[in-house]
Design a protein that fits this description.
With 397 residues, the protein is of the alpha+beta class. It contains eleven helices and ten strands. It binds flavin-adenine dinucleotide.
Length: 397
C-alpha cells in the first residue's frame, strides 16, 4: 500500500529548505540592519560601498557557488536565487555587484579555468579580497557579441590584448578581470564565433586603463566603467579554456547570469509591491483605504501572481542547471519574465503611492530605476525572445 505522507514530511521544491532557512534568516537580518538603512543615501551619492562588500565577503556571499576547497560556500543555484532576491529587495546596486561577481567573473573562471587558475584566482575572489569583472561588451558590439573588435595577438608564450570594453560592472574596483577577445580570425566554413578566446587579467596589469564610471539612471552605487586594453600582455597561462573556443563558455556564463538577473528583477518588484501594499492599507481616500478599491486590489493581485510565476520559473531554471540539464531556454524565459514583471511591479508601486511614489524617500522610484536594467543587461528582452524562439522551434525541425 502507498504510505500516506504527512503534510509536514513533504519537501516542496520551491520552498526554503531548513538549510536554506539557516542561511537566509541571518542574511535577511544583516540586510535589514546593515544594508537597507543606507540604500537611499548610496543611491544619491553613487559611492561604491567598499566596506559593505568586504562584510559580504566575510559572510560567504562573494563565493556562493565556489567549491569549499577554494573557500567558497558551494551553494546550489536555487539557494543562490533566493539570496540574490533578498539582496535585490534591499539594494539593487549591491545586488548587481554580487550577481555579476558570482555569475560572470567567477562563473567563467569556474566553468573554463584550469586547476592552476582556480587555485590562483578563485580563493581571493570567493573571500572578497578581490572583486571580479567580466568584460564582453564593446562600444560597437553589444547584443551581437561575436562582432567584438578587441584583439589578442599571440607571440611566443604571450598574448597582447588591445581594444575597448563598455559598461563593465566593477570596471573600476575589480582586482581580477575576465576579458573576451578575438585571438584568431574567423575561418571560412566555420561560424564567426570561432576564434574568440577568454583571458584572466590582473587588475594591476600595465595597459589596463579604467575609464570614468558612467552616470546611470539607476543602480547608482554599482560601478559601471569603460575599460581600455592598451597592449596588455598576458602569458598563455592567462588563457581561460581553449584558444578560439571561448564563445561556447560565454554563452554558458550568460545562461547562468540570466538566472541571477531574473532573481534581481523579482526581488526589486517584490520589495516595491510590499511597500505599495502596506501603503494602500493605510492610505485613505473617499473614506476608505485605497487597497479596498478594486482597481488597486486587483493590480496587487495580478502582480503578486506574476511575481510568483516568475520566481517559480527562475527556480526551475536553477534546478535544471544543478541537474546538469540544458537550461538555456528556461534561463531566458526566467530572465524575460522576472525582469518584465519586476519593472511592472515597481511601476505599479509608484502609481499606488501616487505623488509620494515619485518622491525619493519612499524608495519605489529607486527600485523602478534599478529594475529597469534587468531588461537590458546580460541580453535585452529582445535577445531573450530570440533565444527562446530559436530553442523552442528546434523541437519542430
Ligand atoms: C548597468 C550595466 C551594466 C553592465 N554590465 C556589463 C558587464 O559587466 N559586462 C559586459 O560585458 N557588459 C555589461 N553590460 C552591457 C550589456 O550587457 C549590454 O548593454 C546589453 O547586452 C545590450 O547591448 P547594447 O547596449 O550594445 O545594445 P544593442 O545591442 O546595441 O541593442 C540596442 C537595441 O537593439 C535591440 N536589438 C539588437 N539586436 C537585435 C536583434 N537581433 N533583434 C531584435 N532587437 C535587437 C536590443 O534589444 C536593444 O533594444 C552592462 C550594461 C549596463 C547598462
Amino acid at each position: 500500500m502507498f504510505r500516506t505522507i504527512e503534510q509536514s514530511d513533504r519537501q516542496l521544491w520551491f520552498e526554503l529548505s531548513d538549510d536554506q532557512k539557516a542561511i537566509i534568516g541571518p542574511l535577511r537580518e544583516f540586510l535589514k540592519t546593515e544594508i537597507a538603512p543606507g540604500a537611499v543615501e548610496r543611491d544619491k551619492s553613487g559611492d561604491f560601498p567598499t566596506e559593505i562588500v568586504t562584510q559580504l565577503g566575510e559572510l560567504g556571499v562573494l563565493g556562493m557557488q565556489v567549491p569549499e576547497c577554494y573557500g567558497g560556500a558551494e551553494l546550489d543555484t536555487s539557494t543562490f536565487v533566493h539570496i540574490i532576491e533578498e539582496i535585490a529587495a534591499v539594494d539593487g546596486s549591491l545586488c548587481l555587484t554580487v550577481a555579476s561577481h558570482n555569475s560572470l567573473c567567477l562563473g567563467h573562471l569556474l566553468a573554463a579555468g584550469s586547476e592552476d587558475q582556480h587555485a590562483t584566482y578563485v580563493p581571493e575572489l570567493a573571500s572578497g579580497k578581490k572583486l571580479g569583472a567580466w568584460a564582453l561588451t564593446e562600444p560597437s558590439s553589444g547584443s551581437d557579441a561575436a562582432s567584438l573588435q578587441t584583439r589578442a595577438v599571440a607571440k611566443g608564450n604571450t598574448f597582447t590584448l588591445n581594444g575597448s570594453k563598455s559598461f563593465i560592472t566593477q570596471g573600476t574596483v575589480a582586482g581580477t578581470y575576465v576579458v573576451i577577445a578575438r585571438s584568431d580570425p574567423p575561418q571560412e566554413g566555420r561560424p564567426r564565433t570561432h576564434g574568440i578566446s577568454a583571458f584572466v587579467i590582473d587588475g594591476d596589469s600595465p595597459g589596463l586603463i579604467r575609464g570614468k564610471p558612467e552616470q546611470k539612471l539607476g543602480l547608482r552605487s554599482s560601478d559601471t566603467t569603460p575599460i581600455t586594453l592598451d597592449n596588455v600582455v598576458t602569458s598563455t597561462e592567462g588563457l581561460l579554456g581553449q584558444r578560439g573556443e571561448a564563445f561556447t563558455d560565454v554563452l554558458e556564463v550568460l545562461d547562468g547570469g540570466r538566472i541571477g538577473i531574473a532573481a534581481m528583477g523579482i526581488g526589486l518588484g517584490r520589495a516595491a509591491l510590499e511597500i505599495a501594499s502596506r501603503y494602500a492599507l493605510e492610505r485613505r481616500q473617499f473614506g476608505t483605504p485605497i487597497a479596498h478599491f478594486q482597481a488597486i486590489g486587483f493590480k496587487i493581485a495580478d502582480l503578486v501572481t506574476e511575481l510568483e510565476a516568475a520566481r517559480l520559473m527562475t527556480l526551475r531554471a536553477a534546478a535544471l542547471k544543478d541537474a546538469g540539464r540544458n537550461y538555456t531556454m528556461a534561463a531566458s524565459q526566467a530572465k524575460l519574465k522576472g525582469s518584465t514583471v519586476g519593472v511592472e511591479a515597481c511601476d505599479a508601486a509608484i502609481q499606488i503611492l501616487g505623488g509620494y511614489g515619485y518622491i525619493k524617500e519612499y524608495e519605489v522610484e529607486r527600485m523602478w530605476r534599478d529594475a529597469r536594467l534587468t531588461r537590458i543587461g546580460e541580453g535585452t528582452d529582445e535577445i531573450q525572445r530570440l533565444i527562446i524562439s530559436k530553442e523552442y522551434l528546434k523541437r519542430f525541425h
